[in-house]
Amino acid sequence: MKRIAVTVLATLCLAGLAGCGSSKSHSVKSYSSMYVDGWTKETMDRRYPNGTTQRQVVGRLGYPYQATTTGGVERWDYVGGKASTQKVSFLFRDSKVIDKAYENF
Predict the structure, then answer these.
(1) 0.70 exceeded by the pTM?
(2) Which of 7, 28, 41, 48 is deepest in the core (most CB within 10 A)?
(3) What is the C-alpha radius of gyration for the chain, rounded to an integer number of angstroms?
(4) b/e for 50-78, b at 16 or more Cβ within 10 A?
(5) Which domains does the chain have, with CATH numbers?
(6) In whole angstroms, what separates CA 2 from the centre of its chain?
(7) What integer pLDDT is reported at residue 46 of this predicted model?
(8) Could you tell me the sign of the dihedral formed by the alpha carbons of 58, 60, 63, 68, in that order?
(9) CA distance 12 to 44
């Protein structure tokens, strides 16, 4: 009986660990794996028009390098990769893009 209980417990543990592996269902990217080739004002404006939700931005760019909130407006800063000096800042109100600021574009 003890052997069966140990076998069942081990099987359940292994089955539980199987769900811990990498899965394509996770669509959120980390900032370090962000793909930033070809950043231009035009592509950023086209991909992230005013009204784009925070969730959509995170889904495409990952989480911001820096985030601040002032007076009900959130600012999310993204930098164009390790060697890049390009920076885009998204301004959100009510979780939607209201403006973008570009640096070194």
Answers:
(1) no
(2) 48
(3) 21
(4) eebebeebeeebbebeeeeeeeeebbbeb
(5) 28-103 (3.30.1450.10)
(6) 47
(7) 94
(8) negative
(9) 47
